[in-house]
Design goal:
This protein has 315 residues and is of the alpha/beta class. It has a single domain, classed as Ribokinase (UDP-N-acetylmuramoyl-L-alanine:D-glutamate ligase). The protein is built from 10 helices and 13 strands. The strands form 2 sheets. It has a 9-stranded mixed beta sheet with strand order 5-4-1-8-9-10-11-12-13, with helices on both faces. Strand 8, helix 4 and strand 9 form a beta-alpha-beta unit. Helix 6 crosses helix 7 and helix 8 runs antiparallel to helix 9. It is globular, with a radius of gyration of 18 Å. It binds adenosine-5'-triphosphate and magnesium ion.
């Protein structure tokens, strides 16, 4: 059953374009030129990929963000609108260009170079009162990358909680590798915390994932870790529960974690059991790896249901 308009997910987030150069024979080095097999310019950025993933699954999403008044911004906005994301509150920045990430990738791994552009400009002041209307859930991704928003994330989370909304956070990587301690204040205000393996260890401060999950869970908060090709790990009723990643023909893992977020959140907002939410997460993550780019092969609700049944049985 599709969620009602009362269950709008509000995402204040970053939008950038991914330029994916895929299939290198040798990794580039200074002073050398290498050729790649494929190239794609497509919507990138964790927040926007999560938003499109949710919209594809039929969840109403409202996005607040900033992009440049340039063709990259046009392309990003077109993809988001085309998927059904409410982009009324996406502003065009006059002085700054749309951010871009160059991904030099193979099926095994990738190197990323990001020009943040307008990403750093978004602040909590850019989230107008009208953006909160009808919103039931607040999701933030890329805590470390969103420099303008980051200091106000706890304030946004408190505001959401005062309105009776639920809150989720995917921290994303810390480009400085310092895992600033202030993220713990933000984590403390969430209902759901959705790190990957590196983020779990960096923020949890322990090489043992179960100890990190235990340390970060409190006051009813659920932590769900994304472990790439190994699937996902969470504490279910206090016990570690591992859900394997379904096998697919992996082409590019860009946005797998963001698509996991979309699948998990759609099920969680639909009040499904935790293990089912994680299964939807790993299915959506896996399906998103079948093609180049974060959103090009994201599942819709029917495809997810069929794939989930094939992987885990039921329905
Ligand atoms: N090689 C793979 N094969 C199958 N599923 C995968 C693979 N890589 C990722 N996934 C799925 O996607 C989910 C999220 O992936 P991952 O742990 O890489 O997140 P992430 O590092 O946050 O990704 P990103 O931030 O790049 O979107 C995994 O839990 C898994 O279900
Ligand atoms: Mg991620």
């Amino acid at each position: 059953m599709p969620p009602s308009t009362q269950s709008i997910v509000l995402i204040p987030g970053e939008i950038n374009l991914d330029l994916i150069l895929h299939g290198f024979n040798a990794f580039p080095a200074l002073g050398r030129e290498v050729l790649v097999d494929e190239c794609l310019a497509t919507l990138g950025s964790a927040s926007a990929i999560t938003a499109v993933g949710l919209a594809r699954l039929g969840v109403p999403v409202r996005f607040v963000g900033k992009i440049g008044a340039d063709v990259w911004g046009d392309q990003c906005l077109e993809t988001m609108r085309g998927a059904g994301v409410d982009s009324t509150f996406v502003e065009r920045s006059v002085g700054t260009r749309t951010g871009v990430t160059v991904a030099i990738s193979s099926t095994a791994d990738r190197a990323l170079v990001t020009y943040p552009g307008a990403i750093a400009e978004l602040t909590a002041a850019d989230v107008p009162s009208a953006a909160w209307d009808g919103a039931a859930h607040l999701h933030v991704s890329s805590y470390y990358l969103q420099e303008g928003l980051r200091p106000s994330v706890p304030e946004l989370f408190r505001r959401a909680r005062e309105r009776g909304m639920t809150v989720s956070l995917d921290p994303g990587g810390d480009p400085t590798g310092h895992w600033r301690g202030d993220v713990r204040e933000a984590v403390g205000l969430t209902d759901l915390f959705l790190p990957n393996a590196v983020e779990l260890e960096g923020i949890g401060g322990d090489a043992d994932p179960v100890r990190c999950l235990t340390a970060l869970e409190a006051e009813g908060r659920q932590v769900v870790a994304k472990l790439g090709a190994r699937g996902s790990l969470a504490l279910v009723n206090g016990r570690p529960e591992s859900v394997p990643a379904p096998a697919v023909g992996v082409v590019d893992t860009t946005g797998a974690g963001d698509s996991f977020n979309a699948g998990f959140l759609a099920a969680w907002l639909g009040r499904r059991a935790l293990v089912d939410c994680i299964r939807d997460g790993v299915c959506c993550g896996a399906l998103a790896t079948r093609g180049l780019g974060g959103t090009t092969t994201q599942a819709d609700a029917d495809e997810l249901a069929a794939f989930r049944a094939a992987c885990f049985g039921g329905e």
